[in-house]
Fold:
Amino acid sequence: MQRIIVLNTKGGCGKTTIATNLASVYADSGLSTSLMDYDPQGSSTRWLSLRSAERPLINGVEAHKKPRGNVTRVWQNRIIPDTDRVIIDAPAGFDHSQLLEFVRQVDTILIPVLPSPIDIHSTADFIRDLLLIGKLRASHTRVNIITNRVRANTIAFQALGRFLNTLKIPVIAQLKDTQNYVHAAERGLGIHEFNSRNLETDKQLWDGILNQLETREQ
Structure:
C-alpha cells in the first residue's frame, strides 16, 4: 500500500481537485483505491457521492467526521484490506502536531501551488515548516509540487516560476486554468474520464503524473 497526501496549509489551492482526479486515475488503472477526506468541508466525500456506480470504484473514508457512539477514530478511518493506493485530501490551516501526524503516515506528499503572491508567500512558509518540523530531508518521504490554475505568459506565472526555481523540489505537473475540472467535479468524475478530444492533453497530463508517482528512484 502506498499513501499519497495532497498537502498545503493554504486554503483554495486545489487540494481536492488534485486528490479526486488522482484517485480516479488510480482507480481507472485497475488499482484498489481509497480516498480519505480530512477536510471539514467534506468536498471529496461530496464528489464521491456524485460518482456513478458504473465508474471504477473508489472507497471513501470520511476522516473529517467525529466518531459516533463507541466507534473509535482508528476504526472509522480504517482502510479496507488489499488497498493498493490511499489518496489523502488534507485540510487547510492545521498545526505543527497535525503536520507531523500527516507526514509520518505517508509515502508521498503533493504540494499544490497557485500563481499568486499570497499563495507563493504562504507556500514558502509551509515548505519551510515541512522541511524543518517534518524533518523530510532525513526521511524517505517523497515531495513533489503541482502548480494549479496556470495561465502561461502572465506576470503571476513568471513570479511562480522564479519561486519554484529556488526550491529543490520536483514540479511534476502544471494544471492549466480551465472550467473542465469544475464540470468534472459536478459529476463525480476525473477530468480524464470525459469523452472529449478537447481534453486529450489533460488526459495525457494525468497519465504523466501517475507515471511519475509510480516511478521509484533506484
Notes: The chain is about 40% helix and 20% strand. The first helix runs from residue 15 to 28. The radius of gyration is 17 Å.
